[in-house]
Amino acid sequence: MRGVRAVEQQEQRLCGRWEHEGPDRLRGRRARAARGYRGRRNVRRQRENRDDLRGKARVRTPHGRGEGRKGRKVLSREFTSGKRKLPVVYEDKDVIFINKPTGMLSQKAKPEDISANEYILAYLIAKGELTESSFRTFRPSICNRLDRNTSGLLAAGKTLKGLQEMAKALKERSVQKYYRCIVKGTVKEASYLKGYLQKDESSNQALIRRTKPSEGEWLPIETEYKPIRCMGGYTEFEVHLMTGRSHQIRAHLASIGHPIIGDYKYGDSGVNVYFKKNARITSQLLHASRFVFEDGREITAPCGAEFERAWNVIENL
Fold first, then answer.
1. Residue 202 CB: number of other CB atoms within 10 A?
2. Cα separation of 45 and 59, whole Å?
3. What is the pLDDT along the chain (317 residues), one digit of tens a residue?
């Protein structure tokens, strides 16, 4: 039986031989390597890295199978041929910013998922900026995360320098992040909110308190907003996310009586049903719209069509 060391030693050999020997001959070798303790997990990780390099990703078929004949998509070829476009809003030699659409994962939740990270890798492969040799020493990756149903700016480091500098700026809050959202209620003045947040992992829901409770782990939060547009009992905010806690904007605004339209976790169920029926809104109208850097640079991403559909309905109330 081969152990973990044998699997690790074979990892690069398997990647290199894939092109020359093909999947059938390697399948048996890979299976034998996986017999050791933890070996199967290492081989699975190796296979995923190889697929990322070749611009492929596994998706579930309608029958729930992980990988069928129609399950594989060669993403890099789709970018090269023009069949697929990545919504890039800014790019230089070190970083790339995309306007992530609603419904796209920032990172994989399961091995078979296709996330924004995989799309960015495939895009760079198609451009010739990511090769087999460079992939083995550094793997480009996203720097910030957005909920699956939150759209907007997603940053990724194309180089180690870009990844480190962007991660540092986000951690030290030297880059300011602004969001757009449409909420229930009429609001005509800007406001600054402080409070405390606790995430209930079992329900994946955030709790908000104005003062810090004596028990439990509560994190301080700060949220600033100003009204941009107000009509018919609804308001569009620009929100300055001063502390970046999970679900902070959604939970904090809901706690003061201004839930976001389409938010099925913290929102108003009656409002959500109305906008789903009349504007086809199926997720929260929350969009990461603007990054402002210390040197004055600003990167923006326009809101999606769902914002326009919502306002068209509101204007006719």
1. 6
2. 16
3. 444 344 344 434 433 433 344 444 434 444 444 444 345 545 454 454 444 434 333 333 333 333 322 323 456 666 666 667 889 999 999 999 999 999 999 998 888 888 999 899 889 988 889 887 787 889 899 999 999 999 999 999 999 999 999 999 999 999 999 999 999 999 999 999 999 999 998 899 999 999 999 988 999 999 999 999 999 999 999 999 999 899 999 999 999 999 999 999 999 999 999 999 999 999 999 999 999 999 999 999 999 999 999 999 999 98
Task: Indicate the pTM of the whole model.
Answer: 0.75
Q: Are 130 and 140 in contact (CB under 8 A)?
A: yes
Quick one: residue 103, left, alpha or beta (phi over 0 = left, psi -120 to 50 = alpha)? left
Distance separating alpha carbons of residues 17 and 72, to the nearest angstrom: 20
Residue 11 amino acid letter: E
Query: Measured between alpha carbons, how far is 154 from 141 in angstroms, rounded to an integer?
Result: 11
Helices (H), 82-221: 116-127, 132-137, 160-171
In this structure, what is the dihedral angle of CA atoms 81, 85, 88, 93, given to the nearest 10 degrees? -20
Rounded CA separation 259/273 (Å): 14
In degrees, rounded to 5, the angle at the alpha carbon of residue 114 between the alpha carbons of residues 113 and 119 is 160
Q: How far apart are CA 108 and CA 118, in angstroms?
A: 9
Q: Which two tokens mark 113?
A: 């998922």
Compute the distance between CA of residue 223 and CA of residue 276 in angstroms, rounded to an integer. 27
Residue 223 main-chain phi, psi, to 5 deg: -135, 130
The total number of residues shown for the chain amounts to: 317
